[in-house]
Structure formats: structure tokens, C-alpha cells
Amino acid sequence: MRTVAVLALPDVVLFDLAIPVQLLGETLRDFGTETDGYRVRVCGLAPGPVRTGSGMPLVTEYGLDELAGADTVVVPGFGGLAEPVPAAVRTALRTVYQRGGRVASICTGAFALAAAGLLDGRRAVTHWAYATLLADRYPAVRVDPDVLYVDEGRVLTSAGLAAGIDLCLHLVRRDLGTAAANHAARRMVVPPHRDGGQAQFIERPVPGRPGDDLAQLRGYLTGALAESHSLASMAARARMSARTLTRRFRAETGLSPTRWLLEQRVQRARELLETTDLPITAVAHRCGFATPLALREQFARRTGTTPGRYREAFGATR
């Protein structure tokens, strides 16, 4: 069992706090074996009451010392950003990272990681409304205000509120594989995967009238990943120009058509590597990659590992 400490700082955002507690601690209870999954601990500066942003009462059983034994520490968003992050918190977060642990933040939780120096020289994201403040206060941080989450290895940050769900699903996918992440997503009734590079803003998430969106095209592409699809061929199927397709696609998904298609190919490859014993060459062809090398390059770029090693870690014969 992996231990996750969720650090509730004063004026914690309860929505942000609930995401890792629910997603990591509850939705996976009926998945896998007793040795898979997470043991979640909600911690405050000390055991006892924690002031919340909404005024609802919160009492934690654990304090900062619980971070010492955690594999991952998640810092939800919190208010009171004009006040300095307590020195004890900064030290505890640095200690977690220095001993090889993983730290993550949701929304304004990034300010705590930045105060501890853990975001210096790294890309990071926070809620779009606080991105400028984060960049101004911590100029060593490369703030990207336009994405859902950023994975920098053992340091991860997400945008505000619901983007924390995407981040936690990403953690599950990294730790336990696609099947576990899909299981958690079904329990949460959310999409199983939104790419971290997707924009925080989706201009037109709901079509203006029935049939006005590109869901039919996306459905076709998902079912025909083995085939070759150029921007021109996708535009022709959607009966619009390539420029219009790109603009409409970005408005509905936050990604270009080619980027979205590539993400679907890699996601399908993960599923095949987990659930089948198909040769890597066959996996590549079924997912629309011309060669195993093309699959390897795109797969490693998104997962940090090779298809072969991914199968060793998450395959059905594990």
C-alpha cells in the first residue's frame, strides 16, 4: 500500500481536499489486491481542528509528522495567500522530496510547493486566476497558466478544482496502470483521461444545437485508430475546412485534431499492453503507429517509460 498524506493548510479548499481522499482512498477499495492502492491520511499542522475556506468544521487525526512516512504528499488549495507558508510546512515538504518522496498540489496548493523551493526551475500550474501571482511571487518557477496539470517526475501540480481529479487519475495511471485509473474514473463518473496539456478553458464545451459538435468524428476516429488519418481526411469527413476543423476541435476539446488523435493512440496502446500479450509491433499497428519505434517515442514522451517496461509493470501477467 502506498501512503498518501493530504496536507490541509489553514483555509483549505474542501473541494480540493476531497478529491485525493475520495479518488485515491475510496474509489479503489474494490480494485486489485490488498497490496495495491493507497492508504490516505489527512494531516493538519497538528492533530485537531483546521480552519476551512468555507467555514465548515474539519478535524484531522494527524499532524505534520505524518508526512515523514508518506510516499506522496498532496497539498490541496488554500486561502490566505498573503500570509507566508509556515516554516515547518516548508521544511516538511522539502524533507519529503529530499528522501525520494513525491509531492503534488491542487490549485493554490502550488504556493506551498513554491515556498518550499520545490518548483524552482520547473514548470508548474495553478488555478488560472492565481497564475500571475504565483509567477510574480516566485520568479524561479516557470508558470504555465494554460494547462490542466504538469508532471515533473516527483513534483506535480494541477490547475484549480476539477483539474485535481485529472491529476489524481494521472497518479493512479502512473502507479497502478490504466485499468485502475479507468475503474476510479467510472466510480467518480468522470472521463478517464484528459491530457495534462489540455487547456484550462474549453471555449464551447456544450454544442449550440444537436449534431453541432464533433462527437461523431471523434467516435469514428476512436474506432479506427489503426487507420491513417491526416488533418485533410479528418476535415473531409467532418465536411469542413482544415482551418475550421482545427478551430472547432480546439473549442470543444482544448486540443488540435492531430494532438487529440495521438493521445487516443497512446491511450489505446496502454490498454493493449495491460490486457493482451500482443507483440509490440502488433500493438503499434493496431494503434496507428507506422513502426514500433514511433510507438516507443510517443509512449515514452507521455509515460516516461518504454512499452516493454510498461507491460512488465502493468501487464496481465504481472
Automatic annotation (TrEMBL):
Source organism phylogeny: Bacteria, Bacillati, Actinomycetota, Actinomycetes, Micromonosporales
PANTHER family on file: ARAC-FAMILY TRANSCRIPTIONAL REGULATOR, HTH-TYPE TRANSCRIPTIONAL REGULATOR RV1931C
Residue ranges of every copy of the HTH araC/xylS-type domain listed in the record: 215-313
Keywords: DNA-binding, Transcription, Transcription regulation
Pfam family, any one: HTH_18
InterPro entries linked to this entry: Class_I_gatase-like, DJ-1/PfpI, Homeodomain-like_sf, HTH_AraC, HTH_AraC-typ_CS, INH-QAR
Protein name as it appears in the record: AraC family transcriptional regulator
GO molecular function: DNA-binding transcription factor activity; sequence-specific DNA binding
